[in-house]
């Protein structure tokens, strides 16, 4: 009798456990879907995961410890290749888009979608940055701030400075012995962007800013846990320090402008201080600082990581390396003897190197996903995206899709020979009104660096099989520990 009672108790506990488990798994669905009424029946397939954490932990686990493509693959395997899936990400019910046409629609249709980054990201980057502005305000700020970093005239102004930085830095690395190649490249690209935006080369300011940006970036894709020891907590502290440094720079610039004649050459801070709306309103310090935080971060992170990966991938593929180097040698051979440095015309002649950069951007996916929010109920691929739900545009899934790119994990710049990607199939810098305004400058920096590196240097990695981390960006765990060797004494 006692044995039977124990068995009944065990079965009851087990049944209760599974019932509780089932309730937990359905809790998010009941909370967020039932209020939609009939619209819930036209939601895309998927699941909203566990209460509070939803699917975020699965995402972080895949990107931190597993295969980053496994997260989306799990949805495809369960629900088919619909390209549209529901999930609960970063504290919000969300729709994930993984095929070109849905991604293009979310990026291009400003009437239906606005930026929808997690609240934690807004706290780090700033609500007054491009992440938080919409419609006419966004268009006006973008027009004013993109001018210094786009177009023939603007880019021509920076070539000499960028080239001098690259040459002096490469020579310095040769004498340093063992370096973290990624860390040093990020410092190089940070020096360039700080000069362009703030017209300063103060080592003290750059070191302070660079240190805090490193902490900030680790927190951008971390769980928003504001407790000591967690990446997000450290990132919030870094944000405060960045604001203090930039506020000091803004104060100094205002004082200098008040006491000195207007500068003939203006940088980004001057452009922001000069912004005046139709009603005479000027930008506040908060608005200026949030925009600078965003630009300075984006302006060195993406170009730094892609420069490192392009260098590594070239050296890992000798035939591709030789072809890219031969193109640079031909540019030098055709150069007039009186010419001392690169010109924009020469950079635009780097056809194969441009394909190397495009392929690196596709393969590495410096931004795996961007966030939008539905302004109204939107139909995408026959499914309803409810008003107010977050929309995650998965660049990585598009760029690694074998139905778009054969052998997508292969580094193959020649795949771009005569190939024009269809809309939505190649989006490393986004698309539409929120296309990254600094993409031309980033490619310019990368091209100049690779030009000199291919001609005169080689990379010797100390841990070529170093494991990778994928958050906040794909990188070797050892930050590409290496030595830089000079292979030519040719004068550039």
UniProtKB/TrEMBL annotation:
GO annotation, biological process: gibberellin biosynthetic process; pollen tube development
GO MF annotation: an example: ent-kaurenoic acid monooxygenase activity
Organism expressing this protein natively: Nelumbo nucifera (Sacred lotus)
Protein name (Swiss-Prot/TrEMBL): Ent-kaurenoic acid oxidase 2-like
Membrane topology qualifier: Single-pass membrane protein
Gene Ontology cellular component terms for the protein in this record: endoplasmic reticulum; membrane
Family: Belongs to the cytochrome P450 family.
Keyword vocabulary terms for this entry: Heme, Iron, Membrane, Metal-binding, Monooxygenase, Oxidoreductase, Transmembrane, Transmembrane helix
SUPFAM superfamilies referenced in this protein's UniProt entry, alphabetically: Cytochrome P450 (SSF48264)
Family annotation (Gene3D superfamilies): Cytochrome P450 (1.10.630.10)
PROSITE patterns in alphabetical order: CYTOCHROME_P450
Organism placement in taxonomy: Eukaryota, Viridiplantae, Streptophyta, Embryophyta, Tracheophyta
Location of this chain's protein in the cell: Membrane
InterPro entries named among the record's database cross-references: Cyt_P450 (IPR001128), Cyt_P450_CS (IPR017972), Cyt_P450_E_grp-I (IPR002401), Cyt_P450_sf (IPR036396)
Keyword RNA-binding: no
Cofactor(s) demanded: heme
């Amino acid at each position: 009798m006692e044995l039977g009672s124990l068995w009944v108790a065990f079965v009851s506990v087990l049944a209760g456990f599974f019932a509780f488990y089932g309730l937990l798994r359905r809790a998010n669905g009941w909370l967020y879907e039932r209020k939609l009424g009939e619209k819930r029946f036209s939601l895309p397939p998927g699941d909203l995961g566990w209460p509070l954490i939803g699917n975020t932990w699965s995402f972080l686990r895949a990107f931190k410890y597993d295969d980053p493509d496994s997260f989306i693959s799990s949805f495809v395997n369960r629900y088919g290749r619909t390209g549209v899936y529901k999930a609960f990400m970063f504290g919000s019910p969300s729709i994930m888009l993984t095929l070109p046409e849905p991604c293009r629609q979310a990026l291009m249709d400003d009437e239906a979608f606005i930026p929808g980054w997690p609240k934690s990201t807004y706290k780090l980057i700033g609500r007054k940055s491009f992440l938080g502005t919409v419609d006419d305000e966004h268009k006006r700020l973008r027009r004013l701030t993109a001018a210094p970093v786009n177009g023939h005239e603007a880019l021509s102004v920076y070539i000499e400075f960028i080239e001098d930085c690259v040459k002096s830095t490469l020579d310095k690395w040769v004498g340093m012995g063992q370096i973290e190649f990624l860390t040093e490249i990020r410092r190089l690209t940070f020096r360039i962007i700080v000069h362009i935006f703030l017209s300063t080369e103060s080592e003290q300011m750059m070191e302070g800013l660079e240190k805090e940006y490193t902490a900030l970036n680790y927190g951008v894709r971390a769980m928003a846990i504001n407790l000591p020891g967690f990446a997000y907590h450290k990132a919030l502290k870094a944000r405060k320090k960045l604001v203090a440094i930039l506020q000091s720079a803004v104060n100094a610039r205002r004082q200098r402008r008040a006491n000195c004649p207007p500068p003939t050459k203006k940088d980004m801070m001057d452009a922001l201080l000069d912004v005046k709306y139709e009603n005479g309103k000027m930008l506040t310090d908060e608005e200026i600082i949030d925009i600078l935080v965003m630009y300075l971060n984006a302006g060195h992170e993406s170009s730094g990581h892609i420069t490192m990966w392009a260098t590594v991938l070239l050296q890992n593929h000798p035939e591709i390396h030789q072809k890219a180097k031969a193109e640079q040698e031909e540019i030098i051979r055709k150069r007039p003897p009186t010419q001392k440095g690169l010109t924009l015309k020469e950079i635009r002649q780097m056809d194969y190197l441009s394909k190397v950069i495009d392929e690196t951007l596709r393969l590495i996916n410096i931004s795996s996903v961007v966030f939008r929010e539905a302004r109204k109920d939107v139909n995408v691929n026959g499914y309803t995206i409810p008003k107010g739900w977050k929309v995650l545009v998965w660049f990585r899934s598009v760029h690694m899709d074998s139905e778009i790119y054969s052998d997508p994990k292969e580094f193959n710049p020649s795949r771009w020979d005569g190939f024009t990607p269809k809309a939505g199939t190649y989006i490393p810098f986004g698309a539409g009104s929120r296309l990254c305004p600094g993409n031309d400058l980033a490619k310019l920096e990368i091209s100049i660096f690779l030009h000199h590196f291919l001609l005169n240097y080689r990379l010797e990695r100390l841990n070529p099989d170093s494991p990778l981390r994928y958050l906040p960006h794909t990188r070797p765990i050892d930050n590409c520990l290496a030595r830089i060797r000079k292979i030519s004494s040719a004068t550039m």
